[in-house]
Specification:
Mean pLDDT: 81
Structural class: alpha+beta
Shape: globular
Largest sheet: 9 strands, mixed
Helix content: 40-55%
């Protein structure tokens, strides 16, 4: 075998492509283990499950399993006939894994031997060397036999020669299997340990709820919403035949009035059936799901149906910030509080109520999407109501959703409280949460400030 043969086997036309021989697979599995144990991944079971599934299937040559529907069924327990167009769980988690891989490699040491990447538009991972020097190192181990110019032996195979060759093949296979089993055992043990820690943090955070015999009150805000009355739609339809003929059109389609058209106040009316924000609903649903899994019942109140008497009667979770009077009334004088920027009436912010305190303001991205949002989780073990009060709110709807994810996902919660005082479960707690928004979807919550008293 000559040197050109070796070069072809290693695909040196693409020097960063990783050949999937046995030793290369060991390198990839070691890198996978490091990634799963890293800070960007260890708090997200879904991201770890997704990445492990696509990498192991690729190493085993089963790329046919890396289709959206198959991943949805195998990793996320969807029904085999689920509608992938309506359920974006695979696409969302793939994007999340890509972001976490970027975070991991941004902080990874420069001698990381191989990069695991998931290219956009695909769920098949790519494995790339970080330097040509490492490629040379792997090349030197690809073949056990030295490279010579001797012609190949064309006579009958010598059993004495064939047997050792087969032995090396089986030894290599056994090594891979043993390493994979060891990695699986480490992964399972680590997952079990992390799950125990996460469950413990969640149980401590919600312990006042579990100590009460009353159901947990979930209070969602409902701001006043004004909508055009039917008479306005009817007048528009007279000059634009065929438009807004059904209730569905009037509820789901924009009324394209000329910017210079004048409206009378009688053309508008209050619509009490509208007004819930998506982030508030997501937060309420995720918290209710967590409490239900732990056997705790909940009761829902929306808008003005949530009274102070209700808050006095049960442990409560108040969702929303500026759109919920109870958040603004109960938490306005705490260490971290929601405020309007005194310079402009329409810039909400989170302010640390100390001299020269920190300030957080949502950052606006392209097309008025908020690329970074912030929220506050407040846990008052003995509030003015005489009961536990937990406030979940954001500057915008994404901040509320991220704050809700923080308190409803034990893995996020244990990471957020990793440096908390030992007796934090008996104290009041405030956590300032940051989330990056991509395509209107908030990223996993990151705690940027904490306060315990």
């Amino acid at each position: 075998m000559d040197n050109s043969t070796v070069n072809n086997e290693l695909d040196l036309a693409h020097p960063h492509s990783l050949p999937l021989d046995e030793k290369a697979k060991q390198v990839i599995l070691l890198e996978l283990e490091r990634i799963l144990e890293s800070s960007p991944f260890r708090t997200s079971s879904r991201s770890k499950q997704f990445l492990s599934y696509v990498v192991l299937n690729t190493l085993n040559g089963h790329v046919e399993n890396l289709k959206e529907r198959t991943i949805g069924v195998e990793v996320f327990q969807r029904d085999p006939d689920y509608a992938t167009g309506d359920d974006s769980v695979v696409r969302v988690n793939a994007g999340e894994v890509r972001r976490r891989l970027e975070q991991y490699y941004y902080a990874a040491p420069i001698d990381t031997p191989v990069r695991i990447e998931i290219p956009l538009g695909s769920y098949v991972p790519e494995f790339r060397w970080t330097s040509d020097a490492i490629t040379e190192e792997v090349r030197s181990h690809v073949h056990d036999a030295p490279i010579t110019d001797e012609p190949a032996y064309t006579g009958p195979e010598n059993p004495a020669v064939v047997q050792p060759r087969m032995s090396r093949r089986w030894i290599g296979l056994a090594t891979i299997i043993g390493f994979a089993l060891a990695l699986a055992a480490i992964f399972i043990a680590t997952e079990y340990r992390h799950q125990k820690q996460a469950d413990s943090a969640a149980d401590l955070f919600w312990s006042p709820v579990f100590n009460s015999s009353r159901p947990v009150l979930i209070c969602l805000p409902q701001p006043v919403v004004y909508r055009p009355k039917d008479e306005l739609y009817a007048r528009y339809a007279q000059s634009h035949p065929g438009t807004f003929q059904t209730v569905y059109q009037r509820l789901d389609e924009e009324l394209p009035l000329d910017p210079n058209d004048k409206l009378a106040w009688k053309d508008m009316g209050v619509s009490p059936e509208f007004g819930l924000a998506t982030g508030d609903v997501y937060a309420g649903f995720s918290i209710t799901t967590l409490l239900a899994q732990k056997g705790k019942t909940t009761a829902l109140r929306i808008g003005s149906n949530c009274s102070f008497e209700d808050l006095r009667d049960s442990p409560s979770v108040v969702i929303g910030a500026f759109n919920n009077r109870w958040t603004m009334q109960m938490a306005s004088n705490l260490h971290f509080a929601f405020q309007w920027d005194p310079g402009t009436q329409y810039t909400p912010r989170i302010k640390e109520n100390i001299p020269s305190g920190r300030v957080w303001i949502a950052e606006i991205g392209p097309h008025l999407n908020y690329s970074v949002d912030y929220g506050i989780v407040t846990r008052l073990v003995d509030s003015d109501t005489g009961n536990l009060l937990i406030s979940i709110g954001g500057l915008r709807t994404a901040g509320t959703q991220a704050a809700g994810e923080l308190v409803s996902d034990p893995h996020y919660l244990v990471e957020a409280l990793r440096n908390a005082p030992k007796d934090w479960s008996k104290r009041n707690v405030q956590l300032v949460v940051q989330t990056k928004v991509t395509d209107a979807i908030p990223s996993p919550p990151q705690v940027v400030a904490t306060y315990f008293w």
